[in-house]
Structure formats: C-alpha cells, structure tokens
C-alpha cells in the first residue's frame, strides 16, 4: 500500500506519496527517468540560437556551387586561365565551406562546446578566405583581356582572343560568385559572433530537486 501525506504550508497543499518497491509503478518511473534526454549545456544552447543547422546548410550549398563552377571553368579553359581559376580559389573555398557547413549541422545534434569552438575556427578561416576570393574575383572583373585587333603588329592566335561576349559572360559569373561570397561572409560572421558569445559564457550545472 502507498502511504500518502498531505501538508498545508503557506496556502500551498503538498501531497507526498511513498510507493513501495513492489509497486509496478516503480519500474515505470525508473525507465522513464533513464530515457529522459540529458539537458543541453547553457553555452551550447546559446550558440544554437543562431540556427547552426540552417547556416550550415547555406555553407554546404554554396560550397557545392563553388566546386561545380571550379570544375566546369577549369575544364573549359583552353588558354591562359582567369585569375580565380588559376588560383584555385573556387575549389579550396568550396571544400572549406563543405567542412564548415558539416560541422555546423553536427553542432545542432551534439552537446559539445569543443565542437562550437571548432566551428568558430573554421568560420574564421571562411571569413579570411572569402575576403581573398572577393579580391580575386574583383580583380578578374576589372582586368583587361587580350584582343585580336591590337595595333602592336603581333598576330595572336584565334583561340587566345577574348571577345567582348566572352568577357561579358566571365564578368557575369564572377559577379554571381561575389554575391555568393558576400552571403558566405555574412553567415561566417554570424557564426563567429554567436560562437564567441557562447564560449565566453560561464557554464553551470543544473540541479534537480
């Protein structure tokens, strides 16, 4: 038999029930307590306010776009490659974005402040890489291209010529990539800001009464 005690204190009624070990409800309560999810730390919960899964998905998508553009442009160039293609920025920035995005998505699932710190380190690298990539693409947009109708008397081969239509297409692709780079930069800054704030917060251990 379960013993029940009723206590009135300060306008509040407290009902205490003592369940014997032979009661079937004991096993049910024990199993439910074991299945309860562990609480998320205060630091990680603060970092998750930035929606790292969404930001990581953006990084993964833009990383795939960079890698695809890098492969296509590298395979289609038959003369002196443009500056972004020659530097390989499309490929290594794409790989960096894939790694950073995967870490951000994983941080949504795992309660680890070390993973948050790793995300901050990689996104700091993304910030520096996007600045370099933006500089390379801007230089490629403003860079002059060889023309077949030069007055220098030097005869250029037809495949070396870079006509106005090709230059317009190249500038359009560089401008599109600059837009993606701006998006990646903003995402990385947001991750770094929330991650820095989360790391600086003092952790505490919740007490169950």
Write structural notes for this entry.
With 209 residues, the protein is mainly alpha-helical. Helix content is 64%, strand content 7%. It is built from seven helices and two strands, in the order ββααααααα. The protein has helices at 24-35, 42-47, 52-76, 83-87, 89-107, 113-142, 164-200, and strands at residues 3-9, 12-18. It has a two-stranded antiparallel ribbon with strand order 1-2. Helix 3 (52-76) packs antiparallel against helix 5 and helix 3 (52-76) runs antiparallel to helix 7. The longest helix has 37 residues, at 164-200. The protein is elongated, with a radius of gyration of 29 Å. The relative contact order is 0.14.
Question: Which secondary structure elements does this structure contain, and how are they paired or packed?
Answer:
Layout: E1 3-9, E2 12-18, H1 24-35, H2 42-47, H3 52-76, H4 83-87, H5 89-107, H6 113-142, H7 164-200
Antiparallel strand pairs: 1-2
Helix pairs in contact: 3-5, 3-7, 5-6, 6-7
Features:
209 residues; mainly alpha; two-stranded antiparallel ribbon; 7 helices; elongated
User: Beta-strand level of the residues, as a percent range?
Assistant: 5-15%
Estimate percent helicity.
Answer: 55-70%
Instruction: Kindly report the spatial arrangement of strands forming the biggest sheet.
Output: 1-2
What gyration radius follows from the Cα positions, in whole Å?
Answer: 29 Å
SSE order? EEHHHHHHH
Span between termini: 25 Å
**What's the story with the biggest beta sheet?**
2 strands, antiparallel
Number of helices: 7
| Average pLDDT figure | 77
The secondary-structure class comes to mainly alpha
Q: Return residue spans where pLDDT drops below 50 for at least 5 consecutive residues.
A: 148-160, 203-209
Secondary structure tally: strands? 2
Q: Specify the overall morphology.
A: elongated
């Amino acid at each position: 038999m379960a013993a029940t005690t009723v206590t009135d204190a300060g306008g509040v009624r407290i009902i205490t029930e003592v369940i014997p070990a032979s009661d079937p409800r004991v096993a049910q309560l024990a199993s439910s307590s074991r299945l309860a999810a562990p609480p998320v730390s205060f630091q990680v919960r603060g970092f998750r306010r930035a929606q790292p899964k969404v930001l990581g998905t953006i990084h993964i998508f833009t990383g795939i776009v960079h890698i695809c553009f890098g492969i296509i442009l590298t395979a289609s160039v038959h003369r002196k490659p443009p500056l972004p293609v020659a530097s390989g920025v499309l490929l290594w920035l794409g790989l960096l974005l894939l790694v950073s995005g995967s870490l951000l998505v994983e941080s949504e699932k795992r309660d680890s402040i070390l993973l948050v710190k790793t995300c901050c380190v990689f996104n700091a690298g993304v910030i520096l890489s996007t600045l370099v990539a933006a500089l390379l693409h801007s230089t490629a947009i403003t860079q002059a291209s060889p023309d077949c109708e030069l007055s220098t008397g030097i005869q250029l081969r037809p495949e070396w010529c870079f006509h106005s239509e090709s230059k317009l297409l190249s500038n359009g692709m560089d401008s599109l990539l600059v837009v993606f780079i701006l998006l990646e930069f903003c995402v990385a800054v947001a991750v770094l800001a929330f991650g820095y704030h989360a790391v600086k917060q003092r952790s505490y251990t919740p007490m169950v009464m």
